[in-house]
Specification:
Elements: E1 4-7, H1 11-24, E2 27-33, H2 40-44, E3 47-52, H3 63-72, E4 77-79, H4 89-97, E5 101-102, H5 107-114, H6 116-125, H7 141-151, E6 155-163, E7 166-171, H8 177-192, E8 197-201, E9 207-215, E10 221-233, E11 236-242, H9 249-264, E12 270-278, E13 284-290, H10 297-304, H11 308-317, E14 331-338, E15 340-341, E16 347-348, E17 351-352, E18 355-357, E19 364-368, E20 375-376, E21 383-391, H12 394-407, E22 409-411, H13 417-424, H14 427-431, H15 438-441
Parallel strand pairs: 1-2, 1-4, 2-3, 4-5
Antiparallel strand pairs: 6-7, 6-8, 9-10, 9-12, 10-11, 11-14, 12-13, 14-21, 15-16, 17-20, 18-22, 19-21
Helix pairs in contact: 4-5, 12-13
Length: about 450
């Protein structure tokens, strides 16, 4: 097994990887910017290397500094976490060139799945259901409008290298197509350095259901069930759960087999997630594959009884996956606790945390790098913690999550805890009657309700 791993990330995911490494007897190296000098991942790693100033492009995205940190500390492997360089094929390739194991898929696998139009073409070849749309990227306006007419409005224009809702536009009428086509390409070029877009039929009011997959270098690929990630605001996930309230045993079997076929298109190695849209008739369509660990991986860990970080490390070292029968036990929910003010349009709330009391009890898990006295920097993603609960039933899990949120006291900054408490009281959430548009169209946060 690896003797030392460098974690090329920050915050809660860096600390999450460190914990598993310690349990496996593996030494760890943290990297940090000057803004993160007092973060817990720096404190609990065996070694720590400062790689630059607060700006990500001068620290966590600076590949030469990450490689140098690995070489100077004699780290044999790099775990990229999520975000930053986790799905960067060039980073994976450079690691290979320096004889450092990238804990994740190969550069070719990342490239094939990272380009959404190429991934879609592969899905069609392997019989994975896809949303009707253009055959690959499309840059000619007239041809794009013709495709839109053929698949029928509404359509969605998507950046091929996109994510997080950027480079994405929904068009409901032909008269609005040119304006949205041009703006999507412009935004994609600015955000990702690639202006290419493709067109798909827009599925109204879908559910977002994703399947966790694992593949080893010996050709074995399996799945660990699904997560429902339909609770979204501006295409950003707010709350995730497993299993999905939508799921039936038959649908899980069909989607699981489709996810395995998707991974087989590139002989996938490592942990990955195949994301699907599910329409009102329970027909599902491939959306994309994320070639990394997901933010919401803990809900799968809780119901499937797997340590996905350990799986990643073992696969990267060349060990075969153990073929265990999938057994979903109980229900798990994750709330993302962000340093944002829901009363002011979710404005980021940086600053010092003056009070930080975490919830506890059976079936309660908090993944966080924050603590009392920690100063939330304004330079990075606003998520400061993930609260995960597990219980025998979904009803029990909702009750446990609400209790845990009330115990989770954070002062000095604003957080999304009050928003989550109100969401858990929403009748449609409780009944499972929601889709990806529910939060923005139907759920209203009331700042006048007194929540902890």
């Amino acid at each position: 097994m690896f003797k030392k791993i460098l974690i090329a990330n920050r915050g809660e995911i860096a600390l999450r990887v460190i914990r598993t490494c310690k349990e496996m007897g593996i030494k760890t190296v943290a990297v940090y910017s000057t803004a993160d000098a007092n973060s817990l991942h720096v404190r609990f790693a065996d070694e720590a290397v400062c790689i630059g100033p607060p700006a990500s492009k001068e620290s966590y995205l600076k590949i030469p500094r990450l490689i140098a940190a690995a070489e100077v500390t004699n780290a044999e492997a790099i775990h990229p976490g999520y975000g930053f360089l986790a799905e960067n094929a060039e980073f994976s390739r450079i690691c290979q060139e320096h004889n450092i194991k990238f804990i994740g898929p190969s550069p070719d696998m990342i490239s094939q799945m990272g380009d959404k139009s190429t991934a879609k073409e592969n899905m069609i070849k392997y019989g994975v259901p896809v949303v009707p749309g253009s055959d690959g990227n499309i840059s000619d306006l007239k041809l794009a409008m013709k495709v839109a007419e053929e698949v029928g409005y509404p359509v969605i224009i998507k950046a091929t290298a996109g994510g997080g809702g950027r480079g994405m536009r929904i068009v409901r009428e032909a008269s609005d197509f040119k304006r949205n086509f041009d703006s999507a390409r412009q935004e994609a070029g600015s955000a990702f350095g690639n202006p290419e877009v493709y067109i798909e039929k827009y599925i109204e009011n879908p559910r977002h259901v994703e399947i966790q997959v694992l593949g080893d270098r010996h050709g074995f690929i399996t799945h660990l069930g699904e997560r429902d990630c339909s609770m979204q605001r501006r295409h950003q996930k707010i709350l995730e759960e497993a299993p999905s309230p939508l799921m039936t045993p038959e649908l899980r079997e069909k989607m699981g087999k489709a996810a395995i076929r998707a991974a087989e298109t590139v002989n996938y190695e490592g942990a990955g997630t195949v994301e699907f849209l599910v329409d009102k008739n329970n027909e599902f369509y491939f959306m994309e594959m994320n070639t990394r660990i997901q933010v919401e991986h803990p809900v799968t860990e809780e119901v499937a009884r797997y340590d996905l970080i350990q799986n990643q490390i073992e696969i990267a070292y060349g060990e075969p996956l153990r073929n265990r029968e999938l057994k979903i036990r109980g229900h798990a929910i994750e709330c993302r606790i962000n340093a944002e003010d829901p009363e002011k349009g979710f404005r980021p709330s940086a600053g010092e945390i003056t009070v930080f009391n975490m919830p506890g009890g059976r079936g309660v898990r908090v993944d966080t790098h924050a603590y009392q006295g920690y100063r939330v920097p304004p330079n990075y993603d606003s998520m400061i913690a993930k609260l995960i609960v597990s219980a025998p039933t979904r009803k029990d899990a909702i009750a446990k999550m609400r209790r845990s949120l009330e115990e989770f006291v954070i002062e000095g900054i604003k957080t999304t805890i009050p928003y989550h408490i109100q969401l858990l009281d929403d009748p449609n959430f409780i009944s499972g009657n929601f889709d990806t548009n529910y939060l923005e169209k139907h759920f209203k946060f009331n700042p006048n309700i007194n929540t902890p």
